[in-house]
Amino acid sequence: MSKQQDGDLGEQTGCEFLRKQGYKILERNFRIKGGEIDIVAREGKVLVFVEVKTRWSHEYGPPVESMTGWKIRSLLKTAKFYIQKINWGEKEYRLDFVGVDFAADTVSPKIELIKNITG
């Protein structure tokens, strides 16, 4: 599988998982120059920007280790652009993380959800 196919499978798995958790998926792969949000969703009245990271091995560490300070700042910049685009105003939003880990089981991945990754 290509890196793009890996990412697409991880994002699809992440979307299915989030739907089961009660999230409503609004958009996937929102892009601006210099940034991308994998999934834009709502959980109740909260707008949620979700970063999905898929791993097939732990050669570069588990999925959550990809969430560096630089990555979080980039995601927040893109999220703020989206918020302005849709006139979200001062309503609540947050950044969540979904790790899809196929390293131990390529059929049933371990899925980790971290809400409000920014703290």
From TrEMBL:
<dbReference type="InterPro" id="IPR003509">
    <property type="entry name" value="UPF0102_YraN-like"/>
</dbReference>
<protein>
    <recommendedName>
        <fullName>UPF0102 protein UT77_C0007G0013</fullName>
    </recommendedName>
</protein>
<dbReference type="GO" id="GO:0003676">
    <property type="term" value="F:nucleic acid binding"/>
</dbReference>
<comment type="similarity">
    <text>Belongs to the UPF0102 family.</text>
</comment>
<dbReference type="Pfam" id="PF02021">
    <property type="entry name" value="UPF0102"/>
</dbReference>
<dbReference type="InterPro" id="IPR011335">
    <property type="entry name" value="Restrct_endonuc-II-like"/>
</dbReference>
<dbReference type="InterPro" id="IPR011856">
    <property type="entry name" value="tRNA_endonuc-like_dom_sf"/>
</dbReference>
